[in-house]
Specification:
This protein is an alpha/beta fold and 137 residues long. Helix content is 33%, strand content 19%. Strand 3, helix 4 (80-88) and strand 4 (93-97) form a beta-alpha-beta unit. The structure holds 1,3,4-trihydroxy-5-OXO-cyclohexanecarboxylic acid (DQA).
Length: 137
C-alpha cells in the first residue's frame, strides 16, 4: 500500500503557525508517529507553497499510489487547477483540514476540491491525516 500526504502552503510552519488553531506539533514530528503507526504502509510526504508543484505531485503520484491525503491549505478555497488535477488522476484523494473551516471565516467555507475528492475530514486536528490513512487501509 503506497500513500502520500501532500500539504500545501504554510503547512510547513505547523507547530509555529497560529498554534491556537493548528497546534504545537510540527508535521515532521507527526509524520514520524505515522510511520511508526503504519509500518506496513509505504508512506511519503510532500509539502509545497507553490500551486504548480502541488499539481505536479498530484499528477506524478495519481496513477500509481493507492491513496493521496491532501491538505491544500488556502488553495482549497481558490484553486480550480488543483480541483482539475484531482479529477484527472485515478488515485482516490481524501481532503483533510486540521481546523474546522466551517467554524472560521466565510471565505474558508467553500472548497473547490471537495466535489472531486472521495471524502473530507475536517476539524479533527492532525488526527485527520491518520484517519484518512486508516480509511485507505
Ligand atoms: C487549512 C484551512 C485553510 O483554510 C487554511 O488556509 C490552511 C489550513 C487547515 O488545515 O485547517 O492553510 O487547510
Amino acid at each position: 500500500m503506497k500513500i502520500i500526504i501532500i500539504n500545501g502552503p504554510n503547512l510547513n510552519l505547523l507547530g509555529v503557525r497560529e498554534p491556537d488553531i493548528y497546534g504545537h506539533e510540527t508535521f515532521e514530528e507527526f509524520f514520524a508517529y505515522l510511520q511508526q503507526e503504519f509500518p506496513t504502509v509505504t508512506l511519503h510526504y510532500f509539502q509545497s507553497n507553490h500551486e504548480g508543484l502541488l499539481i505536479d505531485k498530484i499528477q506524478e503520484t495519481g496513477f500509481s499510489y493507492d491513496g493521496i491525503v491532501l491538505n491544500a491549505g488556502a488553495f482549497t478555497h481558490t484553486s480550480l487547477a488543483i480541483a482539475d488535477a484531482i479529477s484527472a488522476i485515478r488515485t482516490p484523494v481524501i481532503e483533510v483540514h486540521i481546523s474546522n473551516v466551517f467554524a472560521r471565516e466565510a471565505f474558508r467555507h467553500h472548497s473547490w476540491l471537495s466535489p472531486n475528492c472521495e471524502g473530507c475530514i475536517i476539524g479533527l486536528g492532525l488526527k485527520g491525516y491518520e484517519l484518512a490513512i486508516r480509511y485507505f487501509l
